[in-house]
Design a protein that fits this description.
homodimer, alpha+beta, Alpha-Beta Plaits, 35% helix, globular, flavoprotein (chains A, B), FAD-linked_Oxase-like_C (chains A, B), FAD-binding oxidoreductase (chains A, B), FAD-bd_PCMH_sub2 (chains A, B)
């Protein structure tokens, strides 16, 4: 039998996509930036099937590209264009929530579960899975963990990594690491789960995870605040943190971003007139209903207005107003895509360095691309600002022309972040798109260690070839 | 020059202890359980010196046993009795706090800083390092991270691992991994820091860490609650968690433990008469002063008393009363040591399995050692209960005789924990004492992976030989 027939034997012919039309969606990322040529798409339905597919691919010398909801931004789930013959291994059929234990504040979900479905299952048990980002309605648990997803609530509950109690992983040779234990403390040797989380499928295939849940938020208060600049926003951030209010989101955005949202968004209403240079969207929350959140927020914002940190502020007066603030934030990336072409970055710096980062980058970008328009938006409470350089309005060329004109923008911004003790890859991952940045900016000792680990776990380089490591 | 002279050349003769009397404290753990024979004790003063010592030890074929405050319970910081010729590498002179950044909620501390000094530095900056355990006045940062220390606040802020933003590590070949960045988000390849945290010095020497701080707690309320049993305690735990109160400690202990504390402790006053079979010590906290903590606690305890989950409850009415509750908890281990000899365990199970774990273990221990007395105390909110089997009162033999009589107790308790999806090593680590448990209970695939990683990072097995891996 051919290698593909051997795979079909494991998972059934209808779960091995071989027709070009069926494969096409898996051969390209959703933005159309990355294209590969998988030989087939395997859709196993159980962990045992994943393991057998991985074993047989190994025997046949095929590379394996794990794929989840394929909402990633770095091309990790698409075979590398010049890579070895590979299949895409889609986890979409491993979509069972195996267990929800409310008393234990945990659940066990398979890799192919859509994140929103897991959030829903937690909510039905009176619990909260505290991670939130735009793609959660499509992204899957395996991708969330393989990319160590961030989002707007990282500030309070950490990245996806911090929500994991245990993992089930199919290793590159087909063995299964069954470590789905739901314990909060386990100091028995090396923390293997942390190797697979964020490894983007290059060390194995996450097939299931035990996730930590928290009590639901019974009170939330959101505000939309006009500020004079990033330094004032940082002061406001510190004021709120020091007050002791539980800040669960603190987003900073330049006016340009909100103008794009206002222009291209559907049904978006700005809570304040767009007259200030910068804005903050923030949320404080409490799990206990008797916490006087509104008073906390009014007191902090009152003092911020008095001190000049804030120019104006709108506290959401209803759930609809609150939802609008976060809809603006979530819809922004799509709105920006409908504007002129842009080159994007995903950096993080220490929170205290955010103002210097933004100001330095703004000066450098203006000097080199005076016609460009810098959009800055991000999770300021994590130091994670996404800077983009948009083509001017009325840009006559296409996207490729702007990307060519702005060549070097990403490297410039990355270098500024790294010089401030930051990272060139905060929450989107490396995939294919940032391998060059890994080569340029990553600590060489760290790179050597990573290569050693990759060699120890996947000596033949079968897992997601051409990704992460330069 | 001899290998030791070569080391003295790097750090200065007075920082290389070679006299038997000087070495003696490093040759034995504080409980006197583990003894080794280091050739010398090296006390480098800088990261560069650590690196050079490690390089020269490698060239001379010497093993390296990193040591911090040496408060560990598993013999990790003492050379293995039958191990290769080794030196102890004490980090005690790397004790500078390199940076405190209040705006960033972070600090950078060297490995030899005493944990309490770091807590103090954070407090002086108006911040909290949220980890707390009995040995914090002696334990050092390097040991805290190398053992991934737990303690009574893990419930809210996680283990030591969760507090780390970046690490500086001297690798087994003397290279330095300089990754002290204070970023909250960094998805650029494998999470190397998590390999070194909890590795007990077998993969490298942690020389400094960037740690995450949090806002200080402005309100705390503690209570001492009599409960009918572990099942009721779990219900009380869930009642508090579901109420949304921020639980920062939830300790469960059997009456026997409190009786030992009352008998052997100095200046301990029990908040309630010791008439119930089990007790809970709990604390809720808030960073914001306007959170009505007292009302939250009274409401929850009132309902617990009404439902029968709680038999009696004493809320601390003053800081002195609060301190007393936690002094009882912290002094307990010493009090227990002054009682009859005991064999101890360090297991964790899913929180919801704590009652079944305790009940099953109690039955099994009673059946096999009817004369033994089971002491149970631990971090029930993490599922981490420390069960000990004490010799009967008036035990005529010595410690060794009881250890011999109770042989198999640890294995029995470990097996029960593992059968409930738990861990045989929750927060103390493996060191020398639990290597046999690693061989018996650890997932064999996990063990093979760990050996592969150890081989990739430390192919000659220089780092802390004879520890962690069986």
């Amino acid at each position: 039998m051919s290698p593909l027939d051997l795979l079909a034997e494991v998972i059934g012919p209808k779960n091995l996509l071989r027709d070009a039309d069926d494969i096409a969606p898996y051969a390209m990322d959703w933005r159309g930036t990355w294209r590969g040529q998988p030989l087939a798409v395997a859709r196993p339905g159980t962990t045992a099937e994943v393991a057998e597919v991985v074993r047989r691919c190994g025997a046949a010398g095929l590379g394996i590209v794990p794929a989840g909801g394929r909402t990633g931004l770095c091309g990790a789930a698409v075979p590398a264009g010049n890579g070895p013959p590979s299949i895409v291994l889609s986890l979409e059929r491993l979509n069972r929530i195996r267990q929800v234990d409310a008393r234990d504040f945990s659940l066990v979900a398979e890799a192919g579960c859509v994140v929103q479905a897991v959030q829903q299952a937690a909510a039905e048990a009176g619990r909260l899975l505290p991670i939130q980002w735009g793609a959660q309605g499509t992204a899957q648990v395996g991708g969330m963990l393989s990319t160590n997803a961030g989002g707007i609530r990282t500030l309070r509950w950490g990245n996806a990594r911090e929500l994991v109690l245990g993992l089930e992983v199919v290793l590159p040779d087909g063995r299964v690491l069954d470590d789905l234990r739901r314990v909060r403390k386990d100091n028995s040797g090396y923390a293997l789960r942390h190797l697979f989380i964020g490894a983007e499928g290059t060390l194995g295939v996450i097939t299931a995870a035990a996730l930590r849940l928290v009590p639901p938020l019974r009170r939330v208060e959101s505000a939309f605040v006009a500020v004079p600049g990033p330094e004032a926003a940082l002061s406001l951030y510190n004021r709120l943190m020091e007050s002791g209010a539980e800040l669960v989101a603190f987003e900073l955005c330049a006016r340009l971003c909100l103008e794009m949202a206002a222009r291209h968004g559907v049904g978006l209403r700005m809570p304040l007139p767009l007259e200030a240079p910068w804005y903050v969207m923030l949320e404080i929350a409490a799990a206990h209903p008797s916490v006087p959140l509104r008073e906390m927020l009014e007191e902090a914002l009152g003092a911020a207005l008095e001190s000049g940190e804030a120019l104006d502020a709108a506290i959401a007066e209803s759930e609809a107003q609150r939802a609008m603030i976060w809809k603006i934030r979530e819809d922004y990336p799509d709105c920006a895509r409908r504007d002129t072409p842009a080159v994007n970055t995903d950096t993080a710096v220490p929170v205290s360095a955010v103002p210097e980062f933004v100001n330095t980058a703004e000066r450098a970008l203006k000097a080199r691309w005076p016609e460009g328009r810098m959009a800055a938006i991000g999770h300021a409470g994590d130091g994670n600002i996404h800077l983009s350089l948009h083509a001017p309005e009325g840009w006559p060329g296409d996207r490729a022309a702007w990307v060519e004109r702005a060549a070097g923008m990403e490297a410039l911004v990355n270098a500024i972040a790294v010089s401030l003790g930051g990272s060139f890859s905060a929450e989107h991952g490396i995939g294919q798109s940032k391998r060059h940045a890994m080569a340029t900016h990553k600590n060489p000792v760290a790179l050597e260690l990573m290569r050693g680990i990759k060699g120890a776990l996947d000596p033949e380089g079968r897992m997601n070839p051409g990704k992460v490591l330069p």
